[in-house]
Amino acid sequence: MAPPPWRFRCYVSEGGTDEIRTWYDAQSKRIQQKFLSRVMALRGLPPEEWTTPLFRWLRGEGQGIGEVRFKADGVQQRPLGFRGPEPDVFTLLFPALEKNDRFLPRNAIEIALQLRAQVETDKRFCNECWLFRDT
Amino acid sequence: MNAGYSVIPSRNFLRELEDDERRNGFVADHLRMRIATLIRTLREQRGWSQAELGRRLGKPQSVISRLEDPDYGRVSLKTLIEVAAAFALPLYIDMPDWNEWFRLMSDMSIGNLQRRSFDVDHLVLLSRHEVAPAVVGSFTVASTTISSGNLYISAGAAGFHQIGSPVFSDLNWGMSIGNVIDVGSQLQPMRLPIEMGFSAGVTINQPIADLTHSNDEISALQRTVLAQKAKIAALDAENTNLRMANSRNIHTSNLSGGTPVSASNRSFLEVTIASGG
Q1: Which of A76, A78, A88 is nearest to A9 (CA)?
Q2: For residue B244, which residues of chain A lie inside 8 Å, CB to CB?
Q3: Closest by Cβ to A37, choosing from B3, B30, B107
Q4: What is the rounded CA–CA span in Å between residue A76 and residue A117?
Q5: Where on the phi/psi map is residue B142: left (φ > 0), alpha (ψ -120 to 50), or beta?
Q6: What is the mean pLDDT of chain B?
Q7: Beta carbons of B107 and A2 less than 8 Å apart
């Protein structure tokens, strides 16, 4: 029996746009299929097994931010998120990329931290991930 | 974490998979990810470095590193057979129904991917405790009742046996093994092996006649049963790594007809019933 799943939430901007879904819809099918595969895999893993190569917690200035890791279309995709605002939730915040061991955009961590602060202040800045809703 | 969920993803997730290209890519990626995670888990379970596994396969460490990369998509069947052989494990490939695929793929946790290498002693032990209750001569006790001085055992399936040799089988099932005897007349001090892990839809009440248990003896027996139930619980805890190949979702009741026990946590115990005669 698989372990109980994590719940995924997605960052919602002030205008009410689900930014992760907007990003997803704009991607190629190769990126989409890998994203689906990775979130499905992570969903069933215990927290201590959210590790490379599927996932990595950042250190230093990005402490508390984690990256979903996969390569598609020749690019290292790094959707960033954090564990919260509830204990069993991982909230996807911002779809970064990685090139030559650096994030694109360069200030991806800073953006993610700002978005996390927003979500932690007001849960209306995140929605249950549409992929795991029935409607 | 929220309890109780379906391994089949939500409707929205499934809608994403309605697109053939996206679905096929999703399946391929998930399979690659599972293979990579499986190889890494099995290697680490054995305490091997990538170089060590490479040595056993006659391949450089860099090849193992690629095999453990979920984004590497060029693993051949030949390589998989060789890797499985290096772990002394069998390889199994199937094209299951979707619900089964989601079930199989939903848990990539380390605990779910660890495997035991080929081990004759272990397999023999498992075979003794394998389901087919009538064949192995064990039985499942659904409940015990006492009536008019007789001990009634409601057996869900299969038979009793004395130590080592089956002496009775559940004739209602049309199975006959070993030396079938009249339980009523020949059941003397005997040990009742109880195999947890299966159940039958039919309950029979077979009186074990001519047993004259005193109340004290019955109380002692009940205490033994309770003690053995505690043992079962302990064994269940120990056996979490004893993942049976048989994943059928069948259950049994314990001696008091209580909580069902998962088939994957079968335990084995013996209860001694001494005749008062």
Answers
A1: A88
A2: none
A3: B30
A4: 26
A5: alpha
A6: 66
A7: yes
DSSP B256: T
Q: Give how many domains chain A has, as a whole number.
A: 1
Structural domains for chain B: 11-115 (1.10.260.40), 128-273 (no CATH)
Cβ-contact A102, A20 below 8 angstroms: no
Q: Which residues of B touch A54 (CB under 8 A)?
A: 33, 37, 70
Residues A89 and A8: beta-carbon distance below 8 Å? yes
What's the complex ipTM? Answer: 0.92
Distance CA A132, CA A25 (A): 16
Going by pLDDT thresholds of 50, 70 and 90, the confidence category of residue B233 is low
Span B155-168, pLDDT tens digits: 433 333 333 333 33
Our CA-based measurement puts residue B219 at a distance from the nearest CA of chain A, in whole angstroms, of 38
Q: Which residues of B touch A73 (CB under 8 A)?
A: none
Q: Compute how many other C-beta atoms are within 10 angstroms of the C-beta atom of residue A108.
A: 23
Token output for B147: 């009536």
Verify whether the Cβ–Cβ distance B71 to A49 is below 8 Å.
no
Chain B nearest C-alpha distance from A15 (Å): 23
Q: What digits encode the pLDDT tens for the residues B111-155?
A: 999 999 999 999 999 988 765 444 333 343 433 333 333 333 334
Question: Residue B110's pLDDT is what?
Answer: 95
